[in-house]
Amino acid sequence: MTKLSVNINKVATIRNARGGNTPDVLKFAVDCERFGAQGITVHPRPDERHIRYADALAIKPLIGVEYNIEGNPKGISKSRPYGFIDLVKEIRPAQVTLVPDAEGVLTSNAGWDTVKNQDYLRDVVKEFKACGIRVSIFIDANPQMIEMAAKTGTDRVELYTEAYAREYHAAISSSPKLGEVDAKRTEECVRPFVEAAKVARDCGLGLNAGHDLSLENLTYFHQQIPWCDEVSIGHALISDALYLGIEETIHRYLDCLK
Prior knowledge:
By secondary structure, the protein is α/β, with parallel strands linked by helices. The chain has a single domain, classed as TIM Barrel (Alpha-Beta Barrel), CATH 3.20.20.70. About 45% of the residues lie in helices and about 15% in strands. It is built from 11 helices and 8 strands. It has helices spanning about 10-20, 25-35, 55-60, 85-90, 120-130, 145-150, 160-175, 185-200, 220-225, 235-245, 245-255, and strands at about 5, 40, 65-70, 95-100, 135-140, 155-160, 205-210, 230-235. The protein has an 8-stranded parallel beta barrel, surrounded by 6 helices. α6 packs parallel to α8 (about 185-200) and α10 crosses α11 (about 245-255). It starts with a strand and ends with a helix.
């Protein structure tokens, strides 16, 4: 079974645009669980332009589903006297996902180079696992990087799926007849991810996926990689909720994973 973890960063972005507490990020997290989400994901960045460190702390006691905190372990909060590692160790979520975000980056745009960062990642993974936190490493669909990720002692890897989403959209948009799908092109766009997923499985790693997964492309991705443990989806899901409402949107995403 592939679980759906809802990334609520964009809800915090809307709140922060006006100040105050509308929409209420904490209530939104609780409601996502009530509507069927099997996890909540947050990705606090040092500039706190969306989820704040205070939000991340406040959410933990309110939810019963898995809590996943993403971020760069080198990040240092601009509002609190500690960094990402301190935050995660204080909260002790079910999972921490290590993402190599550069300072000021708009959104996550690359996975870890697990060759160059092998020693550093091994130390960070060890520190989190000593606290009983499951660790996942955000990574490109690159077999070598996945094999080296396994050597860090991580529990899982999360496939960075932006390239799949982009190529899948191009494939279905290029079909000569409306509603038709170019099977060859769609297979080509997911093949590197299937191969990477098999390498992860062979290495004994759990598998997550995220970035630009949507109602358009999630069903096909799940059909090709049904052993994926979890997908983390934020931007597309929150955008869909503007039209459909969050309850209906969560139900539709869950339907993609059946």
